Recover the amino acids of this structure.
């Protein structure tokens, strides 16, 4: 398998880390959808990161769909999601909030970095920022009740996605999401980033 995309994308990074936690062999190719557009288009005409190219040259897109597929390749003992319905519900909620935070961070970055200053729309940025803060408020409240499992073998997709989202937002818009206001997220992120799967998959 080949994972195509840059690790500064939270979607690419969450897939890479989960593949490592599942102990699945893969080759990472850091091809950018921006600076390497034509090269990426040869690999996937849609130019969407992450793209996972399988051994028979079929390709998959969207981090959630990729993770859904790769979990089917491993034994029942290796999983990224809890089996109990109540635990699975919470993991799904955490994942949804974290992916929403990623989406809103990306929207702000695109507005600030890709759109000319004279065309940037402040009411839109304010609206997206409010959505971003709401997502992190929800995550902080969830983690105040209980943190995700704190060992690599049980971290799961939810824990990976929360930690990856937080690191990405703090890299891109730290002045909007102020770390000190989210002590539970900050503490969990510090723990997760020390795990081997995270350390070997830096967002650069």
């Amino acid at each position: 398998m080949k994972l195509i995309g840059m690790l500064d994308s939270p979607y690419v990074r969450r897939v890479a880390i989960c593949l490592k936690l599942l102990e699945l062999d893969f080759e990472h190719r850091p091809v950018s959808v921006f600076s390497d557009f034509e090269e990426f288009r040869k690999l996937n005409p849609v130019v969407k990161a992450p793209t996972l190219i399988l051994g028979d040259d079929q390709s998959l897109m969207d981090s959630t769909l990729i993770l859904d597929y790769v979990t089917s390749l491993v034994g029942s003992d290796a999983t990224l999601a809890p089996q109990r319905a109540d635990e699975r519900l919470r993991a799904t909620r955490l994942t949804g909030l974290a992916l929403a935070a990623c989406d809103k961070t990306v929207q702000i970055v695109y507005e600030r970095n890709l759109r000319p200053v004279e065309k940037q729309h402040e009411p839109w940025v304010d609206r997206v920022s409010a959505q971003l803060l709401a997502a992190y408020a929800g995550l902080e409240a969830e983690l105040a009740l209980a943190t995700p499992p704190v060992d690599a073998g049980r971290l799961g997709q939810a824990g990976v996605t929360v930690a990856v989202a937080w690191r990405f937002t703090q890299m891109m818009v730290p002045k909007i999401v102020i770390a000190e206001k989210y002590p539970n997220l900050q503490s969990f992120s510090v723990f997760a980033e020390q795990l081997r799967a995270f350390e070997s998959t830096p967002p650069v």
Notes: The chain has a mean pLDDT of 94. The longest strand covers residues 2-4. The CA atoms of residues 14 and 160 lie 6 Å apart.
